Amino acid sequence: PRESIIHGQTGFLAKQTPQEFAMYMLTLIRDENLRLKINKMGRKRVQDLFSFDAFSNRLDCIIKGDDN
Q1: Could you tell me if 50 and 56 are in contact, meaning their C-beta atoms sit under 8 angstroms apart?
Q2: Structural domain count of the chain
Q3: Which end of the chain is flanked by fewer CB atoms within 10 Å, N or C?
Q4: How far apart are CA 24 and CA 51, in angstroms?
Q5: Where in the sequence is the domain holding 33, given as residue range(s)?
Q6: Greatest mean pLDDT among 12-16, 28-32, 47-51, 58-62
Q7: Which of 10, 15, 44 lies closest to 28, judged by CA?
Q8: d(CA 24, CA 11)
Q9: 11 - beta bridge partners?
Q10: Which residues, at least 6 apart from 49, have a Cβ–Cβ distance to it below 8 Å?
Q11: Where does 1-68 have alpha helices with state H?
Q12: What residue range is the signal peptide (predicted)?
């Protein structure tokens, strides 16, 4: 998850404690604007990094030798 989540923008990276997990869940429940923003940004990040198009574009660059 650390490579796919940007803390506070596309989700939250919580320590493995029930208290911290609950804190972030309550934050999302109470803040609709933040919840909608994280939803939108998270969806965009998944599409940009993990969609078939993103994968095929990266593979094409590797094959062509332009893996920047």
Answers
A1: no
A2: 1
A3: C
A4: 27
A5: 1-68
A6: 28-32
A7: 10
A8: 9
A9: 7
A10: 4
A11: 18-30, 32-50, 52-64
A12: none
